[in-house]
Amino acid sequence: MSNRRIEMYQYRQVIVRMRQGESDRAIARTGLLSRSTTRSIRSIALINGWLNLEHPLPDDAVIGNVLSEKKAHEAKSSSKVASHSEQIKAWVEQGIQATVIHRVLVEGHGLTASYNSVQRFVQSIKLRAPDLTIPLNFKPGEAAQVDFGYGPKLLNQQTGIFIKTWVFVMTLCWSRHQYAEIIYDQKIATWLGCHRRAFEWFNGVPSKIIIDNAKCAITTACFHEPIIQRAYADCAQEYGFIISACPPYDPQKKGRVESGVKYVKKNFLPLRTFQDIGDANQQIKQWILAVAGNRIHGSTRHKPLSQFEEIERVLLKPLPDIPPDLCQWFKVKVYRDCHVRFNYCRYSAPYHLVNKELWLRASETTIRLYDEHHMVAVHPRINTPDNPATISEHLPLKASEFLLQEPNWCREKAQQIGQACFKVVELLLNDKICDYLRAAQGVIKLEKTYGALRVESACQRALCYETPQYKVIKSILSKGLDSPSLTQEQAFDTLSEAYTGKGQFSRDPKELIH
Fold first, then answer.
1. Which end of the chain is least crowded, N or C, by CB within 10 Å?
2. Would you say 335 and 366 are in contact if contact means Cβ atoms under 8 Å apart?
3. How far separated are the first and last CA of the chain, in Å rounded?
4. Partners of 182 in the β-ladder
5. In degrees rounded to 5, what are phi and psi of residue 460?
6. Alpha helix (H) ranges present in 73-114?
7. Is 437 in contact with 407 (CB distance < 8 Å)?
């Protein structure tokens, strides 16, 4: 097992397979986890009763509290063996077995590495045996093979440019009946959609899907442990099929669909014209039912459609009662504005997760954000970058208050305080030179300290002397000049006396009179 982080969804898939009766060896073949790791998970699952089908599988949070995120890996000893590489190569050329080499190295050279390490090193330097092939036999409904091929170039009606296309082909291994669809790209969403339409075409699901190592399905190709796209793994779990990835550079493992792709390219595409991609897909479906499905297949010597209708159809797994919500998973970062970016659109996340990486689950209608296996936000999916999906609770308190206290909010609050306050706020908000929104908010916040009656009285004073400013109103309140018992002249005199500043350009009037 490579030294890589194991995600929670992989643990869950392993436990689901165990509940379905799969052995540790079978699970290890899928590449999810190593056999030793699978064995340790099974022991934990048995202790906690997770394999009891009478009880539902607990959610990820419960599993995450029991399982450790990082498993101990077997110590690497290849470097110890490599130090004796020249001697081992000489012994291998003499035909000496790995068991003898390991014993001599331990006894005579003090090697502490295991026999398996020596055996792997010996196998790596042996001459490669000639490639041999054996026919693969499948039972009805057991498996289907999937592959892409180059499609026709279709004219874009808007730009007048011919666009390259691909042909997606899924072939049932036993009957050789197939589904084909012409597509514009090999993205994950397209890949998942093609699977859904293929299963609906067959009205059932094969037990196993044999695939190549396309990036839309396999993130890291490997002979022993390929890493499967999380979205595709979810699709397999929802529909109930097993993903079987071919070894790298070994297309013979899916030769039936390889032949199916060639058959489509050589027998359907030539001498045909297509108006658009919709017309092309309609024609290819008609051709499968009329021509491809009713030919005598070169290997089976039967008609694929007849074999499918008479025998294989009923042996496929039934479709789910509710079509699964196929989705894609992406790693995204929470930026300083408390939003993540996906397809040029922005979606808010709680502010305490800023600078952290989250999992984004994108379906056709919703966007969900996960911190590890905990969902922290859900948004409707949007298509316009200029209108972000923002939840006010995700923003810091000051930012939320500022966004909520917009001009209309200020007017409503001022109306509740009084007509004078409302008039002051209107004057501030309607200024033609400067944006005085914060000043209007400040006038309204004075109510918390001085009460609505005093704020209203102070606003009346400020309006009387044509100084509807936040600083003036606050000064009136702090100096107690809002008392309704003061006359206008007394208030003016008191306000003038209260001013102790010195104007930079002011002069005594007596100096101007001679």
1. C
2. no
3. 102
4. 167
5. -60, -45
6. 78-82, 85-93, 98-109
7. yes
Measured CA to CA, the distance from residue 293 to residue 399 in angstroms comes to 63
143-315: what CATH class? alpha beta
Question: Are β-strands 143-150 and 166-172 bridged in parallel, bridged antiparallel, or unpaired?
Answer: antiparallel
Identify which of 496, 140, 124 has the alpha carbon closest to the alpha carbon of residue 308.
Answer: 140
- Residue 366 has phi, psi (to 5 degrees) of -135, 155
- The pLDDT tens digits of the residues spanning 93-118 come to 888 888 888 888 888 888 888 888 88
Q: What is the DSSP string of 26-54?
A: HHHHTTSS-HHHHHHHHHHHHHHTTT-TT
Listed as own residue / partner, the contacts of 133-139 with beta carbons closer than 8 Å and 24 or more positions apart are 133/252, 136/173, 136/253, 138/173, 138/174, 139/174, 139/315
Q: Are 304 and 173 in contact (CB under 8 A)?
A: no
Answer for the pair 204, 316: CB distance below 8 angstroms, yes or no. Answer: yes
**pTM of the model as a whole:** 0.54
Mean pLDDT comparison of 91-105, 173-187, 324-338, highest-scoring range: 173-187
Q: Nearest CA to 182 among 254, 266, 283, 291?
A: 283
Alpha-carbon gap, residue 355 to 333, rounded angstroms: 6
Q: Express each pLDDT in 192-207 by its tens digit.
A: 999 999 999 999 999 9
- CA–CA gap between residue 420 and residue 426 (Å, rounded): 10
Instruction: List Cα–Cα distances, 4 to 34, 65, 117, 219, 360, in angstroms.
Output: 11, 20, 20, 13, 21
Please state the domain extents for the chain: 8-66, 78-125, 143-315, 328-400, 405-498
* Residue of 367, 340, 359, 366 whose CA lies nearest to 351: 340
pLDDT class of 503 with cuts at 50, 70, 90: low
Pairing status of strand 218-220 against strand 227-228? antiparallel
b vs e for 338-347, b when ≥16 Cβ sit within 10 Å of the residue's Cβ?
Answer: bbbebeebbb
Three-class secondary structure of residue 171 per DSSP: strand
- Model confidence band, residue 73 (pLDDT cutoffs 50, 70, 90): very low
Q: Is 331 helix (H, G, I), strand (E, B) or coil?
A: strand
Mean pLDDT of the chain: 83
Print burial letters for 400-430: b (CB count within 10 Å at least 16), e (below 16).
eeeeebeeeebbebbeebbebbbbbbebbbe
Answer whether 173's CB lies under 8 Å from 256's CB: yes
Question: How far is it, in rounded angstroms, from Cα 296 to Cα 269?
Answer: 20
Q: Alpha-carbon torsion 470, 476, 478, 482, what sign?
A: negative
DSSP 505: S
What CA–CA distance (Å, rounded) separates 217 from 146? 11
